[in-house]
Specification:
About 45% of the residues lie in helices and about 10% in strands. It is α+β, with helices and mostly antiparallel strands and about 625 residues long. A seven-stranded mixed sheet has the order 4-3-7-1-2-5-6. A five-stranded mixed sheet has the order 10-15-14-13-12. Helix 1 crosses helix 10.
């Protein structure tokens, strides 16, 4: 993973400095020859900053002026320090209900720090002496107004007088009229400090050793480098994080040299967001291997740049996170890619899942196949499909989303649900077969929430109708049909086993509802499915009669806990109700009853069918009741 990030970052920096990818150019050489450019990528950025306030000395008077951040962005290398004074004369000023930050004590620490640097006799000491003359003055002019208070420096006066409530930068122009990023002395200082600031802590200092990523021996290495680069995917100082490493040395597990650490930093803060896509309905990082051939890499990066630029236009924004996998699928020279689900913010952290070694050729197969399924038609599939089968399989979020809002928040965030989606995607991308147990478990869990929603809404009869194309959410019938479509797709793609010897009914009108699309490959499944249609008829009749929700047939499903052994009893209940409602006077109802009876005679009273299949086929049958037995036939 880290080597992929490093390669992409090095290629990026070469394009920014050399305008080409040069396989022989290292990070060390880039740093030596293009110091200014490299430094600008190693400091922090803040997309929320809009304005910069600049302190400058004009005719022995300190004045403050405002400029647009975009115009001086590259001249303000900024590094945030959690404690103590600022690293240099680029300070982030914020405003909140608790007051202005940085507070006076922090500003005092900043001045003390600058004084220490001034006295250190380093190459940059004179630069800090120059800055100190400005920020320790006692009179400030801003927009023609004079600011002067006893015991307050210009630095403190400036922080307090800035009228902005948004975050801004406060900086200092030296006596030569240069902002920090323009000063060679400050550049040298910052290069010296950056590695210590970002990649060390009190307990994880730099040391001499071998870099864990590039293998360079006898160099300065930094145990906290990965975390310092903003990639906190594991806690490197956590005891027991690495097998066979003692508690005293656990934090030394993956130290990096400054060059490798800086490349990871560049990837995280300048490139990573371009490689984030929606996969399985959640944000994931797409990391691709790159071929050693610079021509092939350049070709891909140019395509990728066009793709990113297109997504920034209004037309392309909605396709950004769905299209990145398609882009990679077209490149047959990319060896493989990894998909990483994590929390994406100031840091890349809390990795929850990884799929490695995904071949673009396999993605291309899936993409080609997905273009063919638009023509799939079957009575069990939805008339108005609400899921889109893209390469990222983002329909998994919609299909397994549990309704009822905040009440379902925890179950929608279930770790087991995510694990199932990840395993399913892994099987799809690797062309492997997957055990359906966890998939089935999450199906029944989702179905239960739809049942609860029906009870809560007081309109259980909507379980018979798919709903309109304009509806934003699924009905139960619409959901189960979309689920049937997805299940058949996964079987066709080899994720789940496709059955054989599919059941064929005797009643001619029922035959279109069977076949391989239905998954009905046993008499037991056929019995549950046919019973589901008849059960739906009871619901339909009760809906017409206005039967109370708590007393209707919906309660017979026992919150989807039925198994095959419960089906004979359910059959008896359904027949009793239909006879009471005189519904069996309808010829088609009688034909359906006859079909069910023929299957039931062959099975007997002991129907071996698990809970998942029993309830799935009952609900699937129920969803087509209105097409097999239309209401007008009553």
């Amino acid at each position: 993973m880290f080597s992929k990030m490093k390669t992409i970052a090095l290629d990026f920096l070469q394009m920014q400095t050399l305008n080409k990818i040069e396989s022989s150019m290292s990070m060390y050489e880039l740093r030596e020859n293009y110091h200014d450019t490299i430094l600008s990528y190693l400091t922090e950025i803040d997309s929320e900053i809009e304005k910069v306030y600049i302190l400058k000395q004009i005719n022995n008077v300190v004045e403050m002026e405002t400029v647009d951040y975009k115009t001086v962005k590259h001249k303000l290398p900024f590094v945030q320090k959690s404690k103590g004074g600022a690293i240099g004369p680029v300070i982030k000023r914020t405003y909140s209900n608790t007051g202005i930050s940085p507070k006076a004590s922090y500003l005092k620490d900043t001045i003390n720090r600058f004084n220490s640097i001034k006295k250190s006799n380093k190459a940059w000491s004179e630069y800090f002496q120059d800055i100190l003359k400005i920020i320790t003055s006692d009179i400030l002019f801003y927009k023609g107004q004079k600011y002067c208070e006893k015991a307050k420096t210009v630095l403190q006066l400036a922080v307090e007088s800035i009228p902005e409530k948004k975050k801004v930068f406060l900086t200092v122009e030296n006596s030569k009229g240069k902002l920090p990023g323009e000063s060679k002395e400050y550049q040298n200082y910052l290069s010296n400090e950056l590695a210590l600031i970002k990649y060390t802590t009190k307990s994880t200092r730099e040391m001499i050793g071998t870099c864990s990523l590039c293998g360079k021996p006898n160099c300065n290495i930094y145990p906290n480098a990965i975390k310092g680069a903003g990639i906190n995917i594991f806690n490197v100082d956590r005891i027991g994080a690495f097998p066979n490493i003692s508690a005293d040395n656990a934090w030394k597990a993956y130290p990096l040299c400054a060059d490798c650490a800086d490349l990871l930093y560049v990837y995280k803060f300048y490139l990573m967001n371009n490689y984030i896509a929606q996969v399985g309905g959640a944000k994931a990082l797409i990391l691709s291997d790159m071929p050693p051939d610079s021509t092939l890499k350049t070709r891909f990066y140019k395509k990728f740049e066009k793709y990113i630029n297109a997504t920034r236009e209004e037309k392309g924004v909605k396709y950004k996170e769905q299209s990145i996998l398609y882009l990679i699928a077209q490149e047959n020279y990319i060896p493989s890619l990894s998909i990483i689900w994590a929390k994406f913010g100031q840091n890349l952290e809390d990795v929850v899942g990884i799929i490695n070694d995904v071949l673009p050729s396999r993605l291309n197969e899936i993409s080609t196949f997905n273009e063919q399924i638009e023509d799939w038609q079957h009575p069990l599939f939805p008339q108005n499909k609400k899921i889109e089968l893209d390469l990222g399989m983002n329909c998994l979020r919609e299909i397994f989303y549990r309704p009822r809002g905040k009440k379902a928040k925890n179950t929608n965030a279930s770790k087991q649900l995510f694990k199932m989606k990840k395993n399913l995607l892994s099987a799809l991308y690797h062309d492997e077969n997957l055990c359906a147990a966890q998939f089935d478990k999450e199906f029944i869990e989702t179905a239960k929430w739809y049942m609860l929603q029906l009870f809560e809404a007081g309109k259980p009869y909507s379980a018979l109708y798919e709903g309109k194309e304009s509806d934003k959410s699924f009905t139960l019938a619409g959901w189960i049909k979309n689920f049937a479509f997805l299940k058949y797709y996964l079987k066709t793609m080899g994720v789940f086993k496709m059955g054989d010897n599919f059941y064929e009914p005797e009643w001619e009108s029922l035959k279109p509802y069977f076949g391989k699309e239905s998954g009905i490959d046993t008499k037991e499944k056929a019995f549950a499915f046919l019973l589901g249609i008849l059960y739906g008829k009871v619901m339909q009749v009760q809906g017409a009669k206005g039967v109370n929700v708590g007393a209707n047939a919906l309660t017979w499903l026992k919150r989807l806990t039925l198994t095959g052994k419960d089906l004979p009893e359910l059959y008896v209940k359904i027949r009793e109700k239909l006879l009471a409602y005189e519904t069996e006077s309808n010829e088609n109802v009688r034909k359906l009853v006859r079909e069910i009876g023929q299957v039931g005679v062959k099975l007997g009273n002991k129907i071996e069918l698990d809970k998942i299949n029993t309830n799935y086929f009952l609900l699937l049958g129920q969803s087509i009741t209105t097409t097999v037995l239309p209401k007008k036939e009553n």
